[in-house]
């Protein structure tokens, strides 16, 4: 961020410097051009006066044979605004005629000044000091009868010839007029020079005004340029800010909508501002129906009360129970905190909705593993010590039973002792099987054949319980690499439990199906079903709803299914039958895969 800001600052400074240099160059150039235009204007003004004097002189020569009135013209024209003086000098700088008659005959310029002026046939100008004033002096040779192309003289006809003749003959002219004419129009040598002195103060004022205008324009352009640079810089920063904001929003949205947990955001009025897809699924609501509403109007009561009672304070995780689309219970942990600006102003609240089902499953798995570990320790400690006495008891019970008559009470008592010893031995065997690792002997197995074999084994018991058997096989099910004996044991345990759950008869159904990844076996009955509370604990060791059960049968089933990398769950409602769903991967997974 600092590097970008520094680069932008140096870019702005560099742009201002370049703009300043360009404006300075253009301003100086403009001032010079204005000055040249002003100089040209004053020069042309002086040239027009000189042309007027030359034209007046030619007019006198054409219409009058008397004195040439150049002195009178100088005096009259000097009364115009902006003219300081008018004078004509000879080649040596001696004044022949002047707007101030008293200056006639004096020297206007020294030899050195004349060398600097260098008057000629073309109009020239120079700023010169005349006493205490400065004058813009325009000058050139005074040639009212200058030759034109082809060697002919301008207006050298009629009266000009007469004037020249009178000058030669001296007729009707005084000596003074003759001398004046000879000075103005010497027959030989350089021509006289006419000087027009214009007010330099007006010229300087005009130059000053030009400079001021140019500076004002330069400052105005500079300000506009600076404003443009600043606007461009601000626009760039605004664009970068918008881009960063869009990136932040995109990142925030990506994070929010891909969180594994639900996210609920409320505004400063407590209304719902946003929910991600996970929260919508957890709360079983539709986005369009909740945004902009109060939590109590759109959210489940368990969450809505927490949100509205938070009061802007931090909320530690509180567990609530919500219900999914299928009516299933979803434990949700709700935590939240306020969204505050840098100045501490609260602009809303964010809540994190954590699905605790996996946590609860893991906790239950841990508890089950702990129980299995306890069972394993118990089985390892007592199996040997119990089985040896049991063998002796069974032997003596069999011996004493054979000593009594068939059908006697003592013989029946001995049979009961042998039966109970066998039952206790089976419990010990189940304990050992439950606690030790599964040693699977896998082979490629056709599940259709396996299910038919299991149904054959329970066919007699089903008939005894007045239970009808229904098997839905699927000949397209691929062969599975499983342990057929252990898998048969798991299926038989479930089926025997189902038969015991239907003492008054019913139907036991097996339904086999598959996808590309999983083979699904659903075993369902029409018995009394499993309650919601019991379904949570049904696979725990020692948990049973039967008066004489050990609670190890379904635990062993779970162990066998998990050993194959599969899963088992129960879908049941009380008094509506139970349905056990087993899913086994098509590809070998689990122990000894």
Summarize the structure.
With 593 residues, the chain is of the alpha+beta class. 52% of the residues lie in helices and 20% in strands.
Number of helices: 16
| Fraction in helix | 40-55%
Structural class: alpha+beta
Which stretches are low in confidence, meaning pLDDT under 50 for 5 or more residues running?
Answer: 148-159
List the helices and strands and how they pair.
Layout: H1 2-63, H2 70-77, E1 83-89, E2 95-98, H3 111-117, E3 124-130, E4 133-141, H4 159-169, H5 175-184, E5 193-199, H6 200-257, E6 262-267, E7 272-275, H7 277-283, H8 287-290, H9 295-298, H10 301-309, E8 315-323, E9 329-340, E10 346-355, H11 357-403, H12 409-435, E11 443-445, H13 447-464, E12 467-472, E13 480-482, H14 484-500, E14 506-514, E15 518-525, H15 532-537, H16 553-563, E16 567-572, E17 578-585
Describe it for me?
With 593 residues, the chain is an alpha+beta fold. The protein is 52% helix and 20% strand. The chain is built from 16 helices and 17 strands. The strands form four sheets. The chain has a five-stranded antiparallel sheet. A five-stranded antiparallel sheet has the order 7-6-10-9-8. A hairpin with a 3-residue loop joins β14 and β15. α14 packs antiparallel against α16. It is rod-shaped. The chain starts with a helix and ends in an 8-residue tail after the last strand. About 2% of the residues have low confidence.
């Amino acid at each position: 961020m600092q590097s970008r800001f520094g680069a932008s600052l140096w870019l702005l400074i560099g742009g201002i410097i370049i703009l300043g240099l360009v404006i300075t160059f253009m301003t100086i150039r403009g001032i010079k051009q204005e000055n040249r235009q002003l100089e040209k204007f004053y020069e042309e003004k002086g040239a027009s006066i000189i042309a007027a004097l030359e034209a007046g002189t030619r007019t006198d020569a054409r219409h009058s044979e008397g004195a040439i009135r150049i002195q009178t013209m100088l005096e009259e024209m000097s009364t115009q605004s902006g003219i300081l003086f008018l004078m004509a000098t000879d080649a040596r700088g001696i004044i022949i005629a002047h707007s101030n008659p008293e200056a006639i005959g004096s020297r206007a310029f020294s030899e050195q000044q004349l060398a600097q002026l260098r008057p000629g046939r073309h109009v020239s100008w120079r700023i010169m000091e005349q006493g205490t004033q400065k004058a813009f002096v325009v000058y050139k040779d005074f040639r009212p009868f200058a030759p034109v192309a082809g060697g002919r003289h301008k207006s050298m006809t009629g009266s000009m010839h007469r004037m020249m003749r009178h000058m030669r003959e001296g007729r009707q002219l005084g000596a003074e007029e003759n001398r004046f004419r000879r000075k103005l129009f010497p027959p030989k040598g350089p021509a006289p020079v006419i000087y027009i002195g214009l007010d330099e103060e007006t010229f300087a004022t005009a130059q000053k005004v030009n400079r001021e205008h140019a500076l004002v324009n330069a400052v105005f352009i500079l300000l506009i340029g600076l404003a443009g640079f600043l606007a461009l810089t601000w626009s760039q920063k605004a664009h970068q800010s918008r881009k960063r904001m869009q990136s932040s929003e995109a990142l925030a949205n990506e994070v929010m909508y891909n969180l594994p947990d639900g996210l609920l955001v409320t505004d400063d009025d407590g209304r719902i501002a946003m929910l991600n897809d996970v929260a919508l699924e957890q709360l079983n609501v539709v986005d369009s129906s909740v945004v902009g509403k109060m939590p109590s109007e759109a959210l489940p009561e368990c969450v809505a009360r927490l949100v509205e009672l938070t009061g802007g304070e931090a909320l530690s995780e509180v567990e609530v129970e919500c219900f999914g689309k299928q009516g299933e219970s979803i434990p949700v942990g709700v935590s939240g905190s306020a969204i505050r600006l840098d100045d501490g102003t609260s602009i809303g609240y964010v809540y994190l909705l954590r699905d605790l089902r996996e946590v609860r499953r893991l906790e239950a798995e841990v508890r089950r593993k702990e129980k299995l570990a306890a069972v394993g320790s118990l089985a390892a400690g007592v199996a040997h010590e119990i089985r040896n006495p049991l063998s002796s008891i069974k032997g003596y019970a069999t011996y004493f039973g054979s000593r009594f008559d068939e059908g006697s009470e003592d013989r029946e008592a001995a049979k009961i002792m042998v039966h109970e010893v066998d039952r206790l031995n089976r419990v010990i065997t189940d304990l050992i099987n439950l606690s030790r690792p599964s040693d699977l002997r896998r082979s490629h197995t056709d599940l259709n054949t396996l299910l038919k074999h299991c149904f054959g084994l329970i066919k007699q018991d089903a008939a005894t319980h007045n239970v009808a058997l229904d098997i839905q096989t699927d000949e397209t099910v691929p062969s599975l690499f499983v342990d057929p004996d252990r898998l048969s044991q798991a299926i038989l345990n479930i089926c025997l439990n189902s038969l015991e759950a239907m003492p008054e008869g019913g139907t036991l159904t097996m339904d086999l199906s598959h996808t590309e990844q999983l083979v699904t076996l659903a075993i369902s009955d029409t018995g009394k079903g499993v309650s919601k509370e019991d379904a949570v604990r049904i696979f725990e060791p020692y948990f049973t709803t039967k008066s004489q059960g050990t609670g190890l049968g379904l635990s062993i089933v779970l162990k066998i299914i998990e050993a194959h990398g599969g899963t088992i769950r129960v879908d049941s409602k009380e008094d509506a039958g139970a349905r056990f769903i087993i899913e086994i991967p098509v590809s070998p997974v689990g122990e000894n895969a």
